[in-house]
Amino acid sequence: MEKNALLEVKNLTLSFKLSAGINHVIRDISFTLAQGETLAIVGESGSGKSVTTKAIMGLIDDNGAVEEGSILFKLNETEEVDLLKVDKDYLQKNIRGSRIAIIFQDPMTSLDPTMTVGKQIMESMLEHHKVTSKSEAFKKAKELLDLVGIDHPDKRIKQYPHQLSGGMRQRVVIAIALACEPDLLIADEPTTALDVTIQSQILELIKDIQKKTGVSIIFITHDLGVVANVADRVAVMYAGKIVEEGLASEIYYNPQHPYTWGLLSSIPSLSDKGSEILSIPGTPPNLINPPVGDAFAYRSAYAMKIDFEEQPPMFKVSSTHSAATWLLHPLAPKVEMPAILKERIQLYQSKRGQQHD
Amino acid sequence: MSYRKEQFESVTLQNTEQQEMLASNTGFFKDAFTRFATNKGALIGLIFITIILGLALIGPSITPHIYNEVITTNINLPPRIPFLENFGIFNGFWEGIDVYAKKGFDDLYYWFGADGLGRDLWSRVWMGTRISFLVAFVAVMIDVAIGITYGLVSGYFGGKVDLVMQRLVEVISGIPNLVVVILLVLVLKPGLVSIIFALMITGWISMSRVVRSQVLKLKEMEYILAARTLGASSFVIILKEILPNIMGQIIVMTMFSIPNAIFYESFLAFVGLGLQPPLASLGVLISTGYQSMLIYPHMVIYPVIVLSILMLSFNLMADGLRDAFDPKMKGF
Amino acid sequence: MFKYINKRLVWSIITLGTILFILFLLLQFMPGTPFNDEKLTPQTLAIMNAKYGLDQPFMTRLWIFYSNVITKFDFGISMAIQKNWPVGDLVLPRLGISVRIGLQALLLGTFNGILLGVLSASKRNTWIDTLATILAILGVSIPSYVFALTLSYFLGYKIQIFDIIFNYKDPFFSSLLPTIALSMFIMAQTTRFLRTELIEVLGSDYIKLVEAKGVSKFKIIYKHGLRNALISVVTILGPLTVNLLTGSLVVEKVYAVPGIGSMLVNGILTNDYNVIMMIAFIYSALYIAMNLFVDILYGIIDPRIRVAKGG
């Protein structure tokens, strides 16, 4: 494992058995997460992003099977473990909740309606023996409620989920995730189901928590706009593969893959007055019979013959930035990103320049 | 690996070759049919029902005996079946004695034995099945009709009408079915009509509730449509929209009501409120047979087995139908 | 929540009142009256006329009927079973044994049902699940009297472990067979319902989060799954009670239990209308009481109802 890495996913290939056939949901992906960093995995529904996180936690449904690959997790300075090779018992006792925690998308259904909020936070602490007594757990739970920004923790801790608003419930979910001070926090579309104003509050909270606790974060989303302020690095997924990855600034200011262009262009922006909103035509491919070449070619205006013949490898754009598109091959024609996108990026860069002055 | 320049020529995509939808779009009923056909329990239920109903139709005619003919010399004869008697079962033995031989009946066969009046139980059981089933079927059909109508009216008209109708339902359902059935049959004197009437009175409520909730749900959606359609055709629209949607649930509930009605009818017979002679349903047979159960078990065993299998099969089929129409549908 | 209970209470009382009215109406239509007996002396006849207002107009008789029931719980006198005895004296002493067996059956049935339901849902599609499902569907389909007869025949007659008839000398042991027979349907229905509920609950989002927290499978099923699923199972207690009532008639008859069920059967056989009325009323009252109990129970165990939405 790399020196600073907390999690290393290598050549992960995963599929689900359906009555219609085998669905190749994840097709050979690799990425690394360093300690203390925030990696955003961005993609449409069906891209495989959620399944990846479930694979890390070992929460795949029974009809799913890992065909290849490994997920290395650093236990401590000297030990690492391949999460795909241990049994569910090990995962339950040693990893889930205690070392890796997850936040789900819909706060309205993420909490047990028959248990108080406090008890649900205390549950993982007690289960993983992070505390020595119930009263200690209770105290810690109150502190956590405070940490996630819930008012009147002594009152709230005894309340039931239905007595809290959506935003508050999501904060509780975050508190539950942090209860055992995990090394890795997986946030699976944590703001998708919330109002825009609450969204930014939750994002701020997550950033804040990372500053305070140094926890590493994998942030799953379909919305590049949401991630802009939170991510250190971004990986773009499409049809079960990572098509582009790099530092956040590289992805936002120098995207190379047509899909990334499409994603960035489709973010509505207040500054483009009167311009069109670009959308990506078509739909993601069916992965029961995955396309032979570049899966995105069918929807791309820049498709070339070779896109239908062979899958593109990852081309390096910089030491931290790579993209899997034939457009980066020396023999490929020089292609420019859509004009609208180019303008927008120039606008942002100038604004950023102004800010730095 | 070396590549050729031509491979990097751009391709214009007209009508992007989207891969076709792999799963073909089948209709709702076709889907349901497939689900039903793969449900083992449901199929077993269906097979048994067919067998039993088939036997109910032709059973009495297979044997030479007439179902209500009293032959005092043949009373209490144990079961005897021609081919099987060679295997030591159904051989006309009772308490170790070959009753047929003793009485000199070499050529006489009573497949299910004879009852206390010398009547052939085989024919009686299948005649009884006919009656039990008919009573249940008629009662269920009527109460389904009432239930649907009540639910439609209550839900569609809403407002005060709905309020009153629902309050009525609340009070009626506060009285246990048992009480209603007993009282009704008591007052109207036990008989075919009174039993059907009593069964029908208690069954319609759950159907009306289901129909009503569907109407309410659809009414809400229809308001959007109603703004654009002519007022007069709303009723027809609702009829066209609701009925197909709840057809599945109606079928399932009907299927569940039939064994319920069969049970109630037999139960009434058991407590003395059953059909009067000469009509003999399975319940009546069980009720009379029970009295000599310890001495002549054959009189009660066969109607019991047929009744149980009938009810079991209907329940299995109804379960299967429910899963077929909506795998998530709860309730019972 | 008290407002909620009050409303239900009021409705229960209204329903009981309506039942009484229906019973009274039916009484008018019953062929034959208790007071045609030649053995009655003119004095007794006069007393009864005065007491029950038999020659009074409809409304007066209705009023007398209502007041008799409400104030003295007096349903008149027996016409056949024990002539001229107050019906209450015949029925009420028998209430205890019926209620006892009924409760035993309810407890046994629900306990077994919950056990089977949990096993079935947690080991879905294994042989345990199939077996439990088969047992459940058998229990639901086969009428209670078949169970009563079968148990009585095999366990009471052939292999003589149990008493075939209830006897006072050993009230508990001899109540076992009737209890078991009566509990079959309850167990079967509870199993089916709990299984469905539990499977649905175990598929919900919050269970996924609990699993992601690293909680053991055992705790997931019992601490989270069961708690949520049981709430819904409470709702079937009402219909189950009806089944208990129905079944008790048969079970008491088969095992000769001296309860109100067998008395009802007796009353039907002898056309003793007042007895039938009273027991019908008691049955209705029991059913309504159970429904009320379920409503209250629901309010207690579901926090969403118990704790009003606040801050």
Write the layout of secondary structure elements.
The complex is a heterotrimer of chains A (357), B (332) and C (311).
Chain A: E1 5-18, E2 21-34, E3 38-42, H1 49-57, E4 64-74, E5 80-82, H2 88-95, E6 100-103, H3 117-127, H4 134-147, H5 153-156, H6 166-178, E7 184-188, H7 196-213, E8 216-221, H8 224-227, E9 233-238, E10 241-247, H9 248-253, H10 258-265, E11 315-316, E12 322-323, H11 339-356
Parallel strand pairs in A: 3-8, 3-9, 6-7, 7-8
Antiparallel strand pairs in A: 1-2, 1-4, 4-5, 9-10, 10-12, 11-12
Helix pairs in contact in A: 3-4, 3-6, 4-6, 6-7
Chain B: H1 28-37, H2 40-62, E1 93-94, E2 97-98, H3 99-103, H4 121-157, H5 159-174, H6 177-188, H7 192-228, H8 234-270, H9 282-291, H10 298-325
Antiparallel strand pairs in B: 1-2
Helix pairs in contact in B: 1-10, 2-4, 2-10, 4-5, 4-7, 4-8, 4-9, 4-10, 6-7, 7-8, 8-9, 8-10, 9-10
Chain C: H1 2-29, H2 42-52, H3 58-72, H4 87-122, H5 127-141, H6 144-158, H7 176-202, H8 205-212, H9 217-234, H10 237-254, H11 260-270, H12 273-301, H13 303-306
Count of DSSP E strands of chain C? 0
Q: How would a textbook summarize the main sheet of chain C?
A: none
DSSP helical segment count of chain C: 13
Contiguous runs where pLDDT drops below 50 for at least 5 residues of chain C: none
Strand tally of chain A is: 12
Largest sheet of chain A: 8 strands, mixed
Task: Determine the mean pLDDT of chain A.
Answer: 88
- Oligomeric organization of the protein chains: heterotrimer
Helix content of chain C: over 70%
Explain what this protein looks like in three dimensions.
The complex is a heterotrimer of chains A (357), B (332) and C (311). Chain A is built from eleven helices and twelve strands. With 357 residues, chain A is an alpha/beta fold. Chain A has a domain at 253-356. An eight-stranded mixed sheet of chain A has the order 6-7-8-3-9-10-12-11, with helices on both faces. A four-stranded antiparallel sheet of chain A has the order 2-1-4-5, with helices on one face. The two termini of chain A are 40 Å apart. Chain B has a two-stranded antiparallel ribbon with strand order 1-2. Chain B contains ten helices and two strands. Chain B has helices at residues 28-37, 40-62, 99-103, 121-157, 159-174, 177-188, 192-228, 234-270, 282-291, 298-325; strands at 93-94, 97-98. In chain B, α1 packs across α10 (298-325), α2 packs antiparallel against α10 (298-325) and α8 (234-270) runs parallel beside α9 (282-291). Chain B has 332 residues and is mostly helical. Chain C has 311 residues and is mostly helical. Chain C contains 13 helices and no strands. In chain C, α7 packs across α9 (217-234). Chains in contact: A-B, A-C, B-C. The interface between B and C is large, with 39 and 49 residues.
